[in-house]
Known about the structure:
Blueprint: E1 7-13, H1 19-24, H2 32-38, E2 41-45, H3 54-65, E3 73-77, E4 80-81, E5 92-93, E6 98-99, H4 100-110, E7 113-117, H5 119-123, E8 136-137, E9 141-142, E10 145-146, E11 163-165, H6 172-183, H7 199-202, H8 213-217, E12 284-285, E13 288-289, H9 298-310, H10 314-320
Parallel strand pairs: 1-2, 1-3, 3-7, 7-11
Antiparallel strand pairs: 4-8, 5-6, 9-10, 12-13
Amino acid sequence: MNKDSYFNILWLQSGGCGGCSMSVLNAESPDLFSSLELNRIRLLWHPSFSEASMEEVTDLICDIENGDLRLDALCLEGSVMRGPNGSGRFHVFSGLGRPMTEVLPSLAAKARYTVAIGSCAAYGGITMAGNNPGEACGLQYEGSQPGGLLGANWQSPGKLPVINIAGCPTHPNWVIETLGQLAMGDLARESLDTLMRPRSYTDHLVHHGCPRNEYYEFKASAEQPSDLGCMMEHMGCLGTQARADCNTRLWNGEGSCLRGGYACINCTAPEFEEPGHSFTETPKMAGIPVGLPTDMPKAWFVALASLSKAATPKRLKINAVSDHIRIPPGKKTGGKPS
């Protein structure tokens, strides 16, 4: 097939761990490269996957900037490093001798679309935590505030803002699905939520499909990491607020944070990296969790929680604070559990 008919993407990395690249390599049925081919997507260059020499890469960048090579999507993984003192010299593009803070706007002006891969590129993420010595930010956000490197009102030549495929790391299928939508011309502004994340996964909650939902319904709560119960009340779980489909579109075919026994930390949201408390702690006011389920008025939650706790079956009360199922469904619970 003529390569002119392909959707050309360039994948760059900046201030991050490379975890989103590791994640996308775990795509299955089909794998990453088969998915790109099926969607007629041509990966011009990736710093970890590609074998091009430094000279070939710098020539590629120059060809894009000069208008000699079409770029359909610029993808950035990792936050933008603006330090020290706004110079951008913490990350200079090898071979070009130019800071990424200069290279990225130049390429974004040529690319039909610009895509932030992961929460670091989207909002600043882990790299921006603490006192932010690297002066890190996202492409079009700095934490929850619009702005970032490109500015709050920036639009690509394709008339879209930066598309934020947020997550830490992002799910491989979120990346492949979004790039496929762009390649088919099937992603419009209405396809993005208020934080410019693809609605294909953020119209869902992590709570959907959680294997601990029965415990949640009766407010039968875990008290320590090994317990089976719901982790919202005491263990810091934000699954009822987090916008993602992690428990219905499983990782590697079978996993998710909650299925692995770890609370959801809402990694698709800006500023998740600094909740102000331990990730495994639920802050409370007058004994009520501060972070309540999305769209749930506090008074309703308190009333329903009280009723639920009063009606909790003994099976769930015991299993919730156990590291294995001690009483199976349907078993009479009059005797001592095993």
